[in-house]
Amino acid sequence: MVSVVVPVYNTEKYLRRCLDALVNQTIPHSEIEIIAVNDGSTDSSPDILREYEEQYPELIRVYHKLNGGQATARNLGIKMAKGEYVGFADSDDYVDVTMYEKLWNLARTQDADLVECHYHSMLEIPSEDGAFPTYQEIGTRGTISAHSDVRELFLNPQVSPWNKLYKKSALVDNDVFFPEGMIYEDTSFYIKSLPFIKKHAYLDEKLVYYSVRQSSTMTKNLGAKVGDIFKVLDDITDFFSRKCIFNQYKDELEYFCVKIAFCSNFSRIGRVPNGYLRRELFDKTFDFVNKKFPYYRKNKYFTGKIGMYIRSVAKWNCGPYAYILSKVMIG
Hints:
Layout: E1 2-8, H1 12-23, E2 32-39, H2 45-55, E3 60-65, H3 70-80, E4 85-88, E5 94-95, H4 99-110, E6 114-125, E7 134-138, E8 164-167, H5 168-172, H6 185-193, E9 200-212, H7 228-242, H8 250-262, H9 264-269, H10 275-292, H11 304-312, H12 318-328
Parallel strand pairs: 1-2, 1-4, 2-3, 6-9
Antiparallel strand pairs: 4-8, 5-9, 6-7, 6-8
């Protein structure tokens, strides 16, 4: 069975589209459950969830909780899941109706602990009259492909959980959950799961329609919340140390964490309007890198253009780099 966890918070405009795609999945209904977690929504989302729960009682279970963030909703969903495999759907996105049947079949055929597919990245263009927005397809993030060596999954991945199925036991047996109370929690969850993935499988089809909204948590400037990435990176390195596997994956962790610090993190710092806060975030970036990975310039994975860039970054030139990255990177 597949359990699909759907965290919901104030997404009344998109929720029906999401749920319609899930209740119409081609996988046998006896082999799928939809676990919707209302994270304290204040719009009509709870009413919509009740409507679907009443209409599809054999498919949908709804849990209502006080607002605590997306991570708390997903973690509750994992704990409530009855399926052998767990997937995650965002309530403002939607998926192809064949997605979970295809991923489930692939997972069972290959006895995989993690399966994933490709996706459409859709830039939302708001309507001036308040009608439903239109979308423009843009480039995707990360390198999504088949990997025989799990270590390759550390390198330039798409960390989001919504294009994946995880074997539930690989998560709960190893205490892999989303860190709560911060943004960028997907990053930590993904990386912490990798040491427990014995078999990875990939389906080369775009089966998720991911909405990129400029007003979303991940794309708008959040000022000090940008600094949450350091809590997430600490959560990752602490987890690997606790599990006594830090040295086993040191090269991969170093590449992953330093690349985030000097790339996507810099792009977000470049959008912070307060100059003092920008400088503080730059200082935190170099403090983290130099403390956790002081010899990163020797990392074997930093090759080619990315290697040249990473080795060239310094405190004196990080401002211009961040400005450029803030203009060319979305998210």
